[in-house]
Amino acid sequence: MWLTKHLIKTLLSSFKDKPTLSKIHALLITSGLINQRNPATKLISSYAQIGDIKVARQVFDKLPQRGIDAWNAMIIAYSRMGFSNDVVGVYKEMINEGIKPDSSSYTVAIKACASLCDFEMGEEIWHQAVGFGYKDDDFVGCSVLNLLSKGGRMVEAKAVFEGMKRKDLVCWTTMVTGFAKIGQGLEAVGVFREMQEQGMVGDGIVMLGLIQACTDIGDMNVCLSVHGHLIRRNLLMDVVIYTSLVDMYAKNGHLCLAYRIFCNMPQKTVVSWSALVSGYAQNGLAGEALELLIEMQRVGYRPDLASLVSALLACSHVGYLKMGRSIHAYILRRQELEHISATAAIDMYSKCGALSSARELFDMIGCKDVILWNTMIASYGIHGHGEAALSVFHDMIKTNSYPDDATFASLLSALGHSGLVEQGQYWFNEMINRFRIEPSEKHYACVVDLLARAGKVEEALDLINSMKKHEAGMSIWAALLSGCHNHRKFSVGELAAKKVLELQPDDSGIYSLVANFFASAKMWKEMAEVRKAMRMAGMKKVPGYSMVEVKGKLHAFLMEDKSHYQYEHMVLIIEKLDSEMRAMGYTPKIEFVFHDIEEEVKVKMLSFHSERLAIAFGLLNTEPGTKLVINKNLRVCGDCHEAIKYISKIVNREIVVRDVKRFHHFKHGVCSCGDYW
DNA sequence: ATAGGGTTAG
């Protein structure tokens, strides 16, 4: 055999195509060199590099004696392919065969555990590494930093980091990114500054962590200065960095800027598109998000799950059930439904009024995680099905899923809206004592709401006064006031009303609550003052609109929307309904009009609120008996709430109105959610 | 010589 060992080595490092590799492989076998450590190891890495991991494994398995080099070649091969399970598998085999891992085996194995989020295993390997004298190894240490930061354990990570003798750029980057990822942007910036003070020069990757930190901090000045820094340092070349910038500006609501950067990017990837789609969706610009999803497909990008999930979010925002369904079906066809997209689809179904579809999907998901459970509980909650929410919660406990703060926020809110007071109080206490979760302001607001609805306003006030770590905010006082209003508890109510006014509401619904309270308490002077204050505050400028999906298309209506092609027909329907309603005993609640105009005009304004236009349009264009689902961007008006009860009876239809807070199911003259508030 | 830090989504 004229091929020397040396020549084989050279060949293996310079030729990366499969036919050549196979030829060399054959030569190694015929020459017997295959059984020597060095060429075999080389062969394994070469096969791994061209992505032929199976052959690499075969070579590895056939080796008569395997040294640490061969093991590492194999473990690194799996790591490069992203096969973390196999990495851990090979590591375990090594241990079983009595091979002593070295620095690189530990490093790669711990990295694999981090990407699998298998923190137990990761820590076990870490301890083994320490036991074998790799305590001060930089690579192992850095892998550990990554493991801890992936688990959000930045306090421990910081301790390890501080103990490291030589901190290189990779370690610093891990710390910066770690803090940024868990929402501690300021800490991340602090670490970056420290790094600069140590004279370390950053690269694009550490800047990526810094961009994420800025995204989290949300201060435009910081964002712009980091952007400037990138330009000055000439680091603005990588697609990934551009994409991150798009995300940063989009998440902070600067969509024009995000879009401009997106358009001017030298190249784009699917991720760049996804980042923009998600930016639009998260900022409530559902139409733009969906258009962008279509546009990206048109120019040849196959949407990834992130963009599809964002599109589902957009659908749930505007109640676009038909589009939501087809996106869900598309994900199913691609066989890519997993937890995140399933959760998004469940949320979409429930927010579009298709609660049973949400449940059906939920039941099909095996091995549910916390967010999935929480989403189902919240779904029942917004529809006013407290018992169902509680039963899902019980299932959750039975399967040993551990509830978190969000679980209880959804559960307590669901119980409150269904008047399950004892259950609410019980689980609030269990949350604190058994699950050791500290109540947040949100939890307090739920329980205050729960108690106040039941008329236990003194108890609610005691709870508010017992709050130590939080200051009671608008939601808490408004909930209390509403209970006082409904149960004619005037003295606590007066206190709550004052607190609400002190906090300067920017929502006309809250002003009307205060005014109504003063009216029922016969405190006329205060009532007049509230009306005056309201005029002075000049209420939110957000125009109210309602949407209805008819035959798979979304139709939006603004108040008194005369431009609509069916306006005359809609007016006729509204007027006809109006006279029938009055005959049944309905009187318009003009306190819900906040303009200084004549009463007759006020009444007219009420009956042309956007929700009623949407209902009229729905009635006109659907078969009798069809359920109508209306979506409103603000809170449904109190008068309309009353009127829709009558309408549901007159036309004998189920009418579902979703407003910012929850769902109102109107059927046979009643609303499932009881009181308006 | 090898290995450790990177973008979007519930």
TrEMBL record:
It holds the Pfam family DYW_deaminase. PPR repeats lie at residues 67-101, 168-202, 238-268, 269-303, 369-403, 440-474. Residues 585-677 form the DYW domain. It comes from the Eukaryota. The keyword Repeat applies. PANTHER family: DYW DOMAIN-CONTAINING PROTEIN (PTHR47926:SF405), PENTATRICOPEPTIDE REPEAT-CONTAINING PROTEIN (PTHR47926). This is DYW domain-containing protein. It comes from Chenopodium quinoa.
